[in-house]
Design a protein that fits this description.
By secondary structure, this protein is mostly helical. The protein has helices spanning 8-21, 33-40, 44-56, 75-99, 102-118, 124-142, 145-165, 171-187, 190-211, and strands at 30-31, 60-63, 67-70. The radius of gyration is 18 Å and the shape is globular.
Length: 214
Amino acid sequence: MTQQPETLSEKSYRLLEEMIVTLELPPGSSFSETDLSAKLDIGRTPIREALQKLTTQKLVSTLPRRGMIVTEVNIVEHLALLETRRVLDRLIAGNAARRATAAQRLTLLELADAIGKSVQGQDLSEFMQLDRQGDRILEAAARNDFAVRASVPLHAHCRRFWYLYQENGDLSESAELHAGVLRAVASLGEQRAGEASDLLHDYLERFSRSVLDL
């Protein structure tokens, strides 16, 4: 099936989400639609549509008469986010293990190997790109649009959290656990995929609590 071309609204969202996640727009930074339109060379209407979506996802919020601001990381909200993401990720992994095509399973195994290699040089950017590719394959294979729509913004918040506190994490352990999910979905069945997802989330919670000193 031919992939539809990216709309300006979708491009705006993709670029702005990446700027927020990678801290090019750090928490607490303020901006206007005009600023972003000039920076990205995209009209204000697609920018506005992207910001509306990011506002719904709690990555940005409105400052009355002052523009927009990137949200801060909130301790209580982040732990609640992880609690929610655990359930959704387990559902997506289990569904993907049952429903993935042969081509998707092969791609997942290839990505799992690539993720392992990416962290040998502690390349966070490459790891994040490969991880997102893996997520997209899992989401497509799961064939549950409701779960995917709910989980995508949670993953964005978690990626931003990692960029903020990467010095507190263990990239190699994280990569091994992410790759483990992909391998379990590809070849080990629904139960093992769910177990691998839970192991990853056990680590994410430990990492988050260590950062937040709980």
